[in-house]
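[job 0412] stage=fold_complex status=start
inputs:
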Amino acid sequence: MKGYHGKLLVADLTRGMVADEPLNPRYARDFVGSTGLAARYLFDMVDEKTDPLGPENPLILMTGLLNGTSGPSVSRWGGSTKSPYTGHYGDANAGAWFGAELKNAGYDGVILKGKSVKPVYLSIKDGVGEIKDAAHLWGEDTYKTQEEIRKECGDHRTQVGCIGPASENLVLYGNIMSEHGHCLGRAGLGCVMGSKKVKAIAVRGKMRLPLQNPDKFREAALTAMTEVKEGFLSMIMHQTGTAGWIDSAISYGDGPTHYYTAPTLPESTKISGAEQLEKYQTESTACYGCPIRCRKVLQIKEGKYLYDKVEGPEYETLMAWGAMLGLDLDMSTASYLNEMCNAYGFDTISSGASAGYAFYLYNVGVITEKDTGGLKLTWGNTDAAIELVHQIGKNQGFGAILAGGTKRMAKKYGRPVGEAVQTKGLEYPMHDPRAYHSMALVYATAPRGADHNKCDGYQIDSGVVHPETGLDAGDRWGDDKAAMVERGQNFRALTDSLGICHFAQIPFAPLADMINAATGWDTTMDELLKAGERIFQLQRALSCKLGISAGDDALPELAMRPIPEGGQEGHVPNIEKMLPEYYAIRDWNKATGKPSKKRLESLGMPEIAASIGAE
Amino acid sequence: MALVHINFIGPWRVILGVKTVTVNIISIDEARDYIETHFGPVYQKKIESVGASRKQPIWDNSNILLNGTNIKALTAVTLKDGDKLDLIPNVAGG
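[job 0412] stage=fold_complex status=done
writing structure:
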């Protein structure tokens, strides 16, 4: 197999053994890599009865097809599991250097099975996997863990994907973390790793990836690299990173504030990407092979928490642990909150949203200091927010309630489920569907639950759109978004599986050339976009296999109340119109939500259709 | 002619080194010309400073809000005294 190493490392943690397994070539051709390929493997390994924290639930990590090559911005790798947080399909993808180094180590992916009785870590170097003792690392935060493992390996270029105390303590939205703040987040992949007592996976190697035509690949990669470097989006992301969106979020009313009940807090501009660029940014760093360099290093010389060098927080974190709770943050406190979440290793979106819901419940009088362990959760109480970060990380006190997420919180306090702003158990990210109606459909239909990364509708309607996708910016409050969301989801399913960053707009011609030169395929972008559709429909089918149905494609009532002031201007998405239109395009059954047998078969997945009983 | 306030939002403020200018113009076309003439060279220098070279118009890569309403898709807009134009760069979030 060209473009792949053609093998996976399978670790049987119960037996303490590792073995190589050939990569299924048909799965690779049809589902490409990363989250696509991981979902296909997962489909065969779980069902509705699988206990997400039991030994039978696998944790599957896969490289993106282009990881480790000289293509631009091709760092992203991914994984999937049955989510302990949502109880159904869970996936995640991340950037940084882990995916490329796993390829260098000689593998296309890793599957963790079973459960170890004692803490271990998996070392993979130059085609050899080994399970090592990690008792001395258990309890360490994600930064210290990476540092210690690099020391043990005697090679500072070793890349480490690890869990922190949060996942050891089985916080359900625990992350797998690599470097400073790069995570497989949202769906609790870290929690599953913690349940298996696997502290980390360390990868390093110099094994050359076999390419079908290296010269042709280099030529196409160079063209792609030039185009990415010259693109406007690259330029602007290089300047401010994702935090550059904050000022846009304020203008458009996109940033949830006071738990979805108030216009976006204008004070958030103090922690914006522009502010960071002007006052705090000292350097930009990059994920593997990326000319954009959107990662920001800050120096904080004023405020309560001082840093000579600290990773700049991303937009999602700044909003979730900021305006969501009504916090008027400075960069010092924002950086501290971000660092703590990353050190404990938990998802900043779901945790911030859970804290936001707690603040909301406190402010409407549903809970009191008796419930919160004495914390006064008045809007804007930064000290309380900081305390909650620590309690969540330790899964202790009132934080243990928040560690279960908003859906469980609503149930615990006898509140209507529509008050918890989530879909399928996963909290909304920080793009409000009342600011961009397309996001309502994106959240309602994304396989793992509310997930902005499955289609960046808010970007498209802001004019940030790949020019060859056939998508154009439209009215952000239009309710005619079904076709746009379907196409956008297919495109993102493809780029995620290839391992391409969302900010890299690689023209289609060199992209197809790179893929063909790497693999020896003779594919076209139309065929690749069909693979994107196949992947998305597979992930949906897997969600259905694990218990999701049409009724779960619902949006929470609280976030459908109009906010007349600010950038939303009182708009509310008409999901009753959009969802049936979307179902028709996807060919999903109105009652069960399952993709049709005909559609799955047309995408080459008759076995998936049969498995879920598609009609 | 109308006295119009042009606000450079977020990243534009820092990259172009200006927060607000007040200019005497009558139409959106004039606003565009003013911005590209006065700030295009500043932006071009920034582009070149990071190793790129292709010319990128500020206007084409922005959303334009007139008194809070996006007018990017409109072609003929007449301006009046006190109007506020916000230029928001086409950036992506997380």
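[job 0412] summary: Chain B touches chain A through 29 residues (CB under 8 Å).
[job 0412] exit 0
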